[in-house]
Write a structure and sequence with these properties.
heterodimer; A: Lipocalin; Thrombin, subunit H; globular; disordered N terminus; B: alpha/beta; D-Maltodextrin-Binding Protein, domain 2; 15 strands; elongated
């Protein structure tokens, strides 16, 4: 019971959060959730006729039952049009087959399914498996081992994860932790080309899933924790040659800002802002890495992707907006030239990377059809942007936010709260959301049938406290230590069904642990997600009612998918294998007694080792 | 001054080699009559250690091993985030030769030396720096080393921030480019070749590399010794895994008995000692 998600109607949630606001201690968070749930018999607000059927843009509803990119389609809806599994029969779901990956670090990837073959990529050492779905038990067809250099493990900030691979035109494209991008023959598993984009000697790793747009493979870097400079690269799919590379800081010529660049807001207009919004030369090690998601609008011919937080100076040492960090770029995929930019968190002080998923929808906003980009952002707001121009149409909190007071829709600027800025030698309490944000990289899913965006996220606050001595490369240093804990309500996570038109929550499910898995939703009106203690769950897309759950071997931080097998049946697949930043106390052998480990996240996860152990395993489910 | 390693993979190869050697060894226990002192160390970070055994921590490890009638065996791992977790705590090796005495991750010996952050500047500059409160710091080009995360930084980086000394400060990542030799040393060469007027760097690194430059450099400890809660002076200990008291005590005994020799080693690397 303690670890069961608790369906929580909204009215109820408010009452619980106000009464429990003082009780933010980690150990009793589960109890609080349980307490909140008792008597919460009130039905959730299911009268969401506000949200009605919304067709997906640029015909991405056509679904051949395959899953060729982690986000399912260029709009990044993670919506499957398959409808055999329904709210009525999902309770009968059974394991169809399983597969052990042989790797025990955090498994964040989505499997792909193309031509009756499933492709599964693991964390370091980044094995790529092809499973033959036409054979009984789906045996391994081939295994590709890229053999990344072992030193890359010491460079990865937050576990040695991979968020997936991409398929295009008979090839699988993958990134390795040690900074390589590789094209592999999807049929034979033979390497076609392999190039180095990132340099681990400079702290660069690659953990994101590439996206293939036309003839280009798009790849971004990780390593903001090591003072690297972020970039997005486009590689020619045919031979691996570099087509362009756009940096996230520095002069316009290197950011690929030219005459096409038409940002909506004044603060983003001007020459070389990637230099002038920093103290001299600070941009050279300024961060803005691009380790998250890319979406693509083929009609506008624009890609959309976010940039990570600035660093590594203390914020007072880098006055200015620190462009182009913690924001979003729209670019022409052919040339890399920027079209517009919007900054979620100018001069970020909280580690709010702006790299989350960008869901492209056509929505009626205030009586007008708009081509929009919906972004549940780390800073705590769901943004609806006009994806032609970068204008903010709305930005509404989907969790407890103390670090800012909303977004000024006239200027587009976040209204920050100076009192919450962490400062060296000063204790600052109740910083919400904590550094992982209201939501980290784990992607949400949108159903055109319900009009709702299903957002897996955290509910964590943090205190920044006294300094602690540490040691790197023979040099002692000191830093503010962070301590994270559950936010109001006592639950550390939540699955929220968000209506992007009316900017309201239709329903929520409180989860004791941060929800660090992706989400998939289907035409059968089912939403699937996983929890860090290892429950794979199905709930009703309309009202959040729990329908089915299955306990897998290790906590889930992977991205579920839905596909049609060679037998014509609908399958649901997900990788289990806890880890990542949130799961470092299990996968990374971090001592849970060290509350400030994993940049303070360990303190909020001390109980995780009680509920799960590590181990990578694929689970595939179907109806009998 | 930096020649490039052929490949980044070099370090990794060394690490793998160490692993292989270790595992092979356990298969031939009968031939291993000599005791081993298993040391976790960075293969590319003078003056502390390198895989040629040229660092002062290499020397002190040798000295301890000799007294314990043991042979030193290294596990090489770049000393970055996760170093302690991946080496000492993973059981690949048993002792780390240097770390701040107050760090909680290990069972430490008593400190065997004390050093300070120092100003490094060209003798020819006519500067006389020692105080972190000297108003001239607002005008000089200053270099500090960056750790990589907001709010975790070297003490001088924090101290300059607190004084709003910003636009004249350059950051050098402490990690540097690991394909170069001794990557943290770049900040000292930047002083010698005039890119910056002064560096404020950790004493052992500064003392050793200042001496290697053809331009004469001054090394002056930062005063006062602390800036509020921010220390510029650190005591450095060796450390073993928590719970391994016996080994710690053995090492402690050598450190106690060999104080004079150890001091001589440290002085021969031009380490500013307090």
């Amino acid at each position: 019971m303690l670890l069961d998600g608790v369906l929580r109607p909204l009215q109820r949630a408010r009452r619980c959060s106000s009464s429990a606001i003082l009780a933010t201690l980690i150990g009793i968070s589960g109890l609080l959730v349980a307490a909140c749930s008792t008597g919460a018999a009130k039905e959730p607000d299911t009268s969401n006729n506000r949200a009605s059927a919304i067709p997906l843009p640029f015909d991405s509803t056509a679904d051949d039952g395959q899953w060729v990119m982690p986000a399912k389609n260029y709009a990044s809806t993670r919506f499957s049009a398959l409808d055999q599994i329904t709210t009525a029969n999902v309770a009968n779901l059974k394991v169809a087959f399983t597969f052990s990956t042989g790797v025990v670090q955090g498994h964040e990837a989505a499997p792909l399914v193309v031509n009756n073959t499933m492709y599964v990529v693991t964390p370091y050492p980044n094995y790529l498996y092809a499973l033959d779905l036409t054979a009984t038990g789906s045996p391994v067809k081939w295994k590709y081992e890229p053999k990344p250099v072992s030193a890359s493990q010491g460079v990865a900030c937050c576990d040695v994860v991979s968020r997936g691979v991409a398929y295009s035109n008979g090839r699988v494209f993958m990134n390795t932790l040690d900074g390589h991008t590789i094209a592999i023959d999807a049929n034979t598993g033979k390497e076609i080309w392999k190039i180095q984009l990132g340099d681990i000697n400079k702290g660069e790793t690659i953990t994101m899933a590439p996206l293939v747009v036309k003839d280009k493979v798009l790849v971004g870097d990780s390593g903001g924790e090591f003072g690297v400079r972020g970039w997005l690269a486009a590689v020619n799919a045919s031979d691996g040659s570099l087509a362009w590379r756009a940096y996230s800081t520095g002069p316009d010529s290197e950011v690929l800002i030219g005459s096409d660049f038409k940002p909506f807001y004044g603060q983003d207009q001007g020459k070389d802002l990637g230099v002038s919004s920093w103290p001299p030369d600070a941009w050279k090690i300024g961060g803005g890495t691009t380790w998250g998601w890319i979406s693509y609008d083929p009609e506008l011919n624009l890609i959309y992707y976010g940039t990570g937080n600035p660093g590594p100076w203390n914020p007072e040492q880098r006055p200015g907006d620190n462009k182009w960090t913690s924001g979003i770029f729209a670019r022409n995929p052919d040339t890399g030239q920027a079209r517009w930019f919007y900054q979620w968190s100018p001069h970020d002080e909280f580690d709010y990377d702006g790299i989350n998923e960008n869901v492209l929808l056509d929505l009626e906003i205030r009586g007008q059809m708009r081509k929009v980009l919906v972004r549940p952002e780390r800073n705590g707001y769901v943004y609806v942007l006009d994806r032609l121009t970068g204008e903010v149409l709305s930005a509404d909190a989907y969790g407890h936010v103390t670090t800012s007071n909303g977004v000024d829709l006239k200027t587009g600027r976040l209204r920050t709260v100076p009192d919450k800025s962490p400062r060296v030698g000063v204790v600052v309490r109740d910083i919400c959301p904590a550094a992982p944000g209201e939501k980290d990289w784990e992607p949400s899913a949108f159903s055109p049938k319900t009009g709702l965006l299903y957002i897996p996220h955290s509910n964590l606050c943090m205190d920044s406290e006294a300094m602690q001595a540490n040691y790197i490369a023979g040099t002692p240093y000191v830093g503010v230590t962070a301590r994270m804990y559950a936010g109001p309500g006592g639950n550390r996570g939540e699955l929220a069904a968000w209506d992007p038109v009316h900017a309201t929550k239709a329903w929520t499910i409180a989860e004791p642990l941060p929800v660090w898995s992706g989400v998939v939703t289907t035409s059968g009106n089912v939403v699937f997600y996983g929890t860090m203690d290892g429950w794979f769950k199905a709930v009703d897309a309309t009202n959040g009612k729990p329908l089915w759950q299955f306990k897998v071997g290790s906590g889930i931080i992977g991205q579920p998918i839905s596909y049609k097998g060679p037998d014509g049946k609908q399958y649901i697949a997900v990788l289990s294998g806890v880890g990542g930043w949130s799961g470092a106390v299990v996968a990374g052998k971090i001592d849970p007694r060290d509350q400030s480990a994993a940049l303070g996240f360990a303190g909020a996860m001390t109980d995780l080792p009680k509920y799960t152990t590590k181990g990578g395993m694929l689970y595939v489910f179907s109806l009998p | 001054m930096c020649f490039r390693f052929r490949e980044a993979a070099f370090v990794a190869a060394l690490f793998l080699l160490a692993l292989l050697v270790t595992s092979c060894r356990s298969g031939h226990a009968s031939t291993a009559v000599t005791r081993e002192l298993r040391v976790c160390a960075d293969p590319n970070n003078l003056p502390f250690s390198n895989q040629q055994g040229e660092g002062f921590e290499n020397r002190i490890a040798d000295l301890i091993a000799k007294e314990l009638h043991a042979r030193v065996r290294y596990t090489w791992w770049a000393q970055r985030r996760g170093f302690f977790r991946n080496t000492l705590k993973a059981g690949l090796c048993d002792v780390v030769m240097g770390m701040p005495a107050g760090m909680e991750m290990t069972l430490p010996t008593r400190p065997y030396y004390r050093s300070s952050y120092v100003f490094v500047y060209r003798r020819s500059s006519g500067l006389r720096l020692s105080s972190i409160n000297d108003p001239i710091l607002r005008k000089l080009k200053i270099g500090v080393q960056m750790i990589g995360d907001d709010f975790t930084n070297t003490p001088p980086a924090h101290a300059l921030t607190a004084r709003h000394i910003i636009s004249n400060v350059s950051g050098y990542t402490l990690y540097g480019d690991y394909a170069e030799q001794n990557p943290p040393a770049r900040i000292i060469t930047a002083v010698a070749n005039g890119q910056i007027d002064t560096a404020i760097a950790w004493g052992p690194l500064a003392g050793y590399f200042a001496k290697m430059q053809s331009t004469p450099l001054e090394i002056v400890p930062v005063s006062p010794a602390s800036d509020g809660p921010l220390p510029f002076v650190f005591d450095i200990s060796a450390g073993v895994r928590a719970g391994e008291q016996e080994l710690r005590d053995e090492i402690q005994k050598v450190l106690d008995n060999k104080q004079t020799e150890i001091r001589r080693v440290l002085e021969s690397y031009a380490i500013p000692l307090l």
